[in-house]
Every structure is written in C-alpha cells, then in structure tokens.
Design brief:
The chain is built from 10 helices and 14 strands. With 311 residues, the protein is an alpha/beta fold. The strands form 2 sheets. An 8-stranded mixed β-sheet has the order 6-14-13-8-9-10-11-7.
Length: 311
C-alpha cells in the first residue's frame, strides 16, 4: 500500500482576505452563524456566506439543504478566485451524501486553499487529501459552540490561518502517553466513525500506513468505539501506521472506560499513542493541520509540525 504522503499547502491569510462559509452537513442556527461571522470580521476577514448555508432540506431536517446545492456551494466557493479560504459552518451529518457531487476536477484545477472543519467534515478532509492532494485544517467551525465561547479555540485557528509559524508545536497540557515513544509521519484523520464509514468507498483512502493518525469522536459509547476500531484493524487500514494522536471523546461515556477501549484496540499496534491532545469536540479545540509531515512525541505530549500549516 502507498504510504501517506505530504500534501500541497495553501497560502496564509492576511487582513481583508475573503473567506467563504459553507454548510456541507447540518442546518445552521442563525444566531450562532451571526456570532461566528462577527468573530471572523474581528480578525479583519471578509466572510461571504454561500447561497445555501441557511437552507434546510425539505424532508430531512438534519441536512442543510439539498445534497447538490451543498456540493455546488463548496465547488463554487473553492473555484472563486477572490476567495482565499473555505470554512465550514457546522458538522452534524450530510458530508458523505454530497462529497461525490463536488466537482473535484475543478477543485484540483483551482489549487489549494485553507479549508477548516471537523466532525462530519472528516469526509471532506479525506476527499481533499485523496482526490485533490491538498492539506487541510482540522479546526473549529464558524457556528460551533466551542468556537463561539472559547478564546483558546479561537486563537488556535486565528494563528494557524495568519501566523502558522507560531503554532508548530501542538497539544494541551493534558496530553500524555497512552503508549510511549516517538514517531514521524504525515498527519491525517479526524472523526474515527467517519474514517471507518469511508472504508470500501470508491475514493476512500487505502491505508494509514506511514501516517500520524489523529482520532476523536462524539456520542459513541465504548462498545461502539470498540466496533469502529476493530473494523479499522480487521480491514488492515491501520497496518503500518507510524503513530496515533487522540483528541476528545465527548459524550462517549466515562473516560476511564473509553481509555480502556483505546488502549486495548490501539496498544497492540506497537506505535506511540498520545492521548488527550485537545482537539475535536472538546471544550478547547486546537486546530491541527492534516497532510503535513510532523513528529509525534508521546512522552513529551507534543505533535510538532516540520513546516507551517500554510505557506
């Protein structure tokens, strides 16, 4: 299997940059969207809301509009030369439904841009990596409660977008070794249930071999996390992974029970595993670049990028 390779980086943002906000998954509460847009404006950005962001699917209320409309918003925002970055408004569910409707040929031709999201957006992170060859940012979404309420979450994203050389070493003080060691590889990952759901799809990543795999999830009880990780193990997708970084497991049950599952399923891989790094659905959610070479030091509790997230 081909190892995980480093991907093309986008350019960093500057004052006055236009950024598009899209909704590839669930519908957006208007007041939270407005608050997130105000934060972006406070950074000197010019946010532009895509045409269908405020839509709700006519029969499936958990979707932000029709699949084709959500895919068209993403394609058009990416291909607009005046737009420097594309930020997701929220997660939920729906990215898998629209990912194959995105015009990936046009996306590749337009070149890399900063792309930010997490949770359900994992399906799009994987698509940008596999189908476009672009690095992305696993970071907070514009209308997410954590982004609206937590200054550290806001600052992590702002620094990654504007001053990426200042955030090369990542990990909260809570980070500690689940399995000790040090490893080098290219970052990938996101919501583990979405990664498992991508297995067997026509454009799914064949393997995490050689990569530094970053995993988190929300609302998955320990036995379901066991099932998800066991599926990744049985499929061979985890064969040859270089190291693993673990984020938050909100609403997944008592952490000691979750931790036991993680240790049981991942400990046998014989690679460094760093837990409680502080990304995902946690009260503070760090922005982590995907598709870049880095060093995971479980003993030191850090993930250190070898180059800034953006050029």
């Amino acid at each position: 299997m081909t190892p995980v390779d480093a991907l093309a980086r986008a350019e960093r943002l500057g004052p006055g940059a236009r950024v598009a906000v899209v909704a590839p998954s669930g519908p957006i509460p208007e007041e939270r969207l407005a608050a997130g847009l105000d934060i972006l404006r406070g950074w000197g950005l010019e946010p532009v809301v895509a045409p269908h962001v405020r839509d709700t699917h006519p029969t499936l209320g958990y979707l932000a509009g029709e699949d084709r409309a959500r895919a068209r918003d993403l394609t058009e925002a990416w291909c607009d030369p005046s737009v420097s970055a594309v930020l997701c408004a929220r997660g939920g569910f729906g990215a898998q439904r629209m990912v194959d409707l995105v015009d990936w040929t046009a996306i590749r031709a337009a070149g890399p841009k900063a792309f930010v999201g997490y949770s359900d957006v994992t399906a799009l992170h994987e698509a940008f990596a596999v189908r476009a060859g672009f690095a992305t940012l696993h970071g907070p979404m514009v209308a997410a409660a954590t982004f609206l309420s937590d200054p550290a979450t806001q600052e992590s994203l702002r620094a990654a977008l504007f001053e990426p050389e200042t955030v090369l070493t990542l990990g909260l003080d809570t980070a500690r070794a689940l399995t000790p060691g040090r490893a080098r590889g290219v970052t990938l990952g996101g919501c583990v249930s979405l990664l498992a759901a991508d297995l067997g799809t026509p454009h799914g990543r064949a393997s995490a071999r050689g990569g530094l795999l970053l995993l988190e999830d929300v609302g998955e009880e320990p036995y379901r996390l066991d099932r998800i990780l066991t599926q990744l193990l049985r499929s061979g997708w985890l064969d040859g992974v270089a190291g693993i970084g673990l984020g938050s497991w909100e609403e997944c049950g008592p952490y000691e029970e979750v931790r036991a599952v993680l240790a049981d399923r991942l400990g046998g891989l014989g690679v460094p595993v760093l837990e409680e790094m502080g990304f995902g659905h946690s009260p503070t959610a760090l922005t982590l670049p995907l598709g870049l070479p880095a060093v995971l030091d479980a003993d030191a509790g850090t993930l250190t990028l070898e180059e800034p997230a953006l050029r």
